[in-house]
Amino acid sequence: MSEWLVLSIAMASACAVVLTITVINHRRVGEDDDPSETPDVIEYMTMMIGVVYAIVLGLAIAGVWEGRSAAQDSVRQEAQALHEVSARSEVYPAEVRARIRGDVDAYVSYVVNTEWKHMAEHGSLTERGTELLEQVRRDVTDYVPKTDHEGQAYQPLVDQVATADDARGARGAGAEATMPGVVWFGLIIGALVAVGLIFTLQIRRTGRELLLAGLYSALIAFLLFLIWDFDAPFGRGLSATAGPFLDLFPEATR
Description:
Keywords: Membrane, Transmembrane, Transmembrane helix. Pfam families: Bestrophin-like. This is DUF4239 domain-containing protein. With about 250 residues, the protein is an all-alpha fold. It is built from 8 helices and no strands. The two termini are about 30 Å apart. The mean pLDDT is about 80.
């Protein structure tokens, strides 16, 4: 099922529940009921709880967005480091250069075509990807430079492989969900409380009040969906992409 379809269903369901409760509650209210008699303390408490929950939602969104940005940065750093390895191996003999570039291409192709899907489904890296990157490392470190020019390029190549390995580790660490279960519990309970409190204000069946109640509940449903979607940096619709790999290694998808 499409994530946007899930979002639409969630928002529509939230609106339907709130509006249904409002209509049912209105039918139970007597004709002599005066909505202006709502105690001021209830209005104050409703406002304060809404403000506190809005702050919590903002912090949660900022946290998962930061995690997604960090995941995308790790992908960019890994792709750039591997591109540097491939480019700087130009100073090596043709046989060594071809071996290094071939193994770099094999690793990138595996990451884009196989490991990316595994990360999305399981939230972890694969052993095969680790082996392919280790092969690139051996290609670089096992070669003994024979000229000063090759010697000057050796250490930068080793450093770039180390950078790629570090970025790969960061990519693996960011593949899992970042929001603890207890935080989700608080967000969901807070949403129920925030929406439930609007019924203490004795909203009526006027078009304006029903519209505002529906929009309020739909907004909270949308924000919770946004947090859920960003919570898996590599696994959902607004996730980090393999774009940096594809930009620097356009042959990777073939």
